[in-house]
Amino acid sequence: MKHKNVFLSFLLLILIYFPTIAISLEEAKNLALKNNSTLKAQKVKLDAATRTKDASWNVFLPSLSLSGGLSNSHLNEAGNTSWSWSASTGLSIGLTASIPSKLKQINLTYETELTNYSEVKQSIETQVANSFYNLIAEAENIKILEDSLNLSEQQYEQAKRNYNNGLISELSLLQAQYAYLSSGPTLEKAKNAYQNSLAAFQILIGSDEILIPEGEIQLTKLSLPSAQELIDTYLDTRLDIQKKKLALENANVAKSIQSVETYAPSINLSENFSLSPNNQPNTDKTVGVSGRFSVSVSIPVNGLIPGSSNNLSLKKAEDSILTAQIDLETARKQGANDIEAKTATINQLWKSIEISNLNLSITERAYQLSQDGYNAGLISQTELETSRQQMVSAKQNVSKDETAYLIAVYDLATAINLTTEKIYQLYGQH
Predict the structure, then answer these.
(1) Superfamily for domain range 3-62+97-264+302-427
(2) 187 pLDDT exceeds 50?
(3) Does 395 have pLDDT greater than 50?
(4) CA 46 to CA 39: how far, in whole Å?
């Protein structure tokens, strides 16, 4: 398929006194990712989850405590007093069967936040791509309308010559004049629409400068496998499916933790050391050292009581698993439908592009013949104008279909979690 170089042939009045810079799609996406506040907020959550995951080993660390004291004691009736001190330290380790599950839960939280971050990033890139391609299409439409305006002006000038030579009526002259004058507002309307879209684009990418989407667009026909084959290959790679799978896995882990805390015993190991002076009268002043090691086992019984809080929490955890399973199944169905629809859209749009280009060739030739016929006095001004409008409409349809195809390819790539470069590499016809 042909290459199409799109360059702006006009400069909007609002942009006259402002610097303009051309920008590629990749540059636009990178700039949007850098400046997007939603992505920044999601990055904070991801960093927090990363720190928690990297420090998850600390669940095996014992708890350490230090204590000390100073006291005053009356030793006899004479009012003699003495001061005493004491210090102690202790180590304690609690061991429960839920520790492996809690470690897994920490890792699942990290993976979920990473998927959330990737999903936000993907959404931003898709918005930028759609805006980028639509702006190029709008710029192409302006070029088409500028050419059309030039043609209508030429028709009007020719009509004036023909009228002066007595070849056409005054009505035909007025019709040519109307066609020329009405082309101007249509062009200005298109420029205003472009201006508004360009302003929205600057906000989307977070730019203080006026950046103009520009570049070379190559249309490549995709030879896609069946929608079912794409579904079988790529459905589970979708970010929304990955999130639902993580949610289900997290629900199972949460139930495991709740089951352990409800029914499984826990063991606590502790060691305490204390220092204190011997202040008893008529004894050597020494410092006493004592230590104590203890092992305790805790066996929960609340879970055995119907309707207890632990028992209800366990039932709630089981309900969460069922909900996550339903959500995953629903997401799979929606994802499959999405891939199937986008595959059909791409195939349909390529056929539409071929038909649109054929129609363009026909209308361009028809306009040439109409011009010749009009100059020879064989057809009317109305017929000539109709031929011109048909050609303009054909050019717009080609541009519209090509833009829609580019966006559809990007959307399919997103739907199966591939880059556009990868999907062209795998399925493009060269």
Answers:
(1) Outer membrane efflux proteins (OEP) (1.20.1600.10)
(2) yes
(3) yes
(4) 10
